[in-house]
């Protein structure tokens, strides 16, 4: 697996959060608090952690779509492949939408490529990406890392004490 | 929503990918290719896009757990809240596991905080995070952005022509 990251979260602010709207609704002329068993997650304002994660998966899907289209072109359209590679050298994929918008405006041939990328990212998100597997892997990862962190700490402390 | 990003993908390499193992298995003494309807995604080697996304969601969950614990401490343990805030100023949350490992070793009081964060990130991932909602939001986002990108392009071109 490569070294790049989906989650540089250091820029997140720990300033006082806006009120969270998940657990409260306005009903008639007074506020009623609905009891919610979920933990209160501050700092996402009107959005939600799910919306934030979706936004970034959206960029990830654009990146995947570019890789898929690029691999397809390599087999059957070397010229278009070279054009896409050249465009990739000049444009960042950090913002998937901006990348597609720029690609669309580069030339009529690039526009065709951009439309193909839009189509592929939609198909990938809806049909190919294994959402259940994502949940399973993420849960397993949390368990494995929690166990490892605690085990390493205990080993370190017991080593120091002996 | 805040400005930070989950997906800086510019570092991804477009070098020739390793062979993808999803569609091929070795059976007896010869290779048999299993037909798979999924699109070929190059460049993830032995891992998968799901594993890559899970890895980064894992860091996202650590960030969320830190926010949750921090908000809880603000209400009932001002001293621990101040200690966590001070630690946050000195340590990056980019690598969730490293953050927890460092927090654990800072002092016995910090260790208690770290264990609480590990517990919360596990509970959040398994019980609170709305996985179905993530899928729904991501699919909707792809559709909305694809439509908007094409509409903007058509409007721009028709404006130029008129």
Automatic annotation (TrEMBL), chains A, B:
One of its GO terms (biological process) is response to water deprivation. Pfam families: RbcX. Transmembrane segments: none annotated. GO terms for cellular component: chloroplast thylakoid. GO terms for molecular function: protein folding chaperone. The keyword Repeat does not apply. The keyword Chaperone applies. Keywords: Carbon dioxide fixation, Chaperone, Photosynthesis. Gene3D superfamilies: Chaperonin-like RbcX. It comes from the Eukaryota. This is Chaperonin-like RBCX 1, chloroplastic. It comes from Olea europaea subsp. europaea. The lineage of its organism: Eukaryota, Viridiplantae, Streptophyta, Embryophyta, Tracheophyta.
């Amino acid at each position: 697996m490569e070294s790049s990251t989906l989650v540089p979260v250091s820029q997140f602010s720990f300033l006082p959060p806006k009120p969270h709207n998940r657990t409260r609704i306005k009903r008639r002329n007074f506020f009623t608090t609905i009891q919610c068993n979920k933990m209160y997650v501050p700092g996402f304002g009107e959005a939600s952690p799910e919306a934030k994660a979706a936004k970034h998966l959206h960029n990830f899907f654009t990146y995947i779509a570019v890789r898929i289209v690029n691999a397809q072109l390599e087999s059957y359209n070397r010229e278009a492949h070279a054009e896409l590679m050249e465009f990739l050298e000049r444009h960042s994929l950090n913002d998937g939408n901006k990348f597609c918008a720029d690609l669309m405006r580069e030339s009529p041939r690039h526009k065709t490529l951009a439309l193909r990328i839009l189509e592929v990212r939609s198909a990938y998100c809806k049909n190919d990406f294994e959402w259940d597997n994502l949940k399973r892997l993420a849960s397993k990862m949390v368990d494995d890392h929690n166990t490892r962190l605690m085990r390493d700490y205990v080993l370190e402390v017991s080593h120091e004490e002996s």
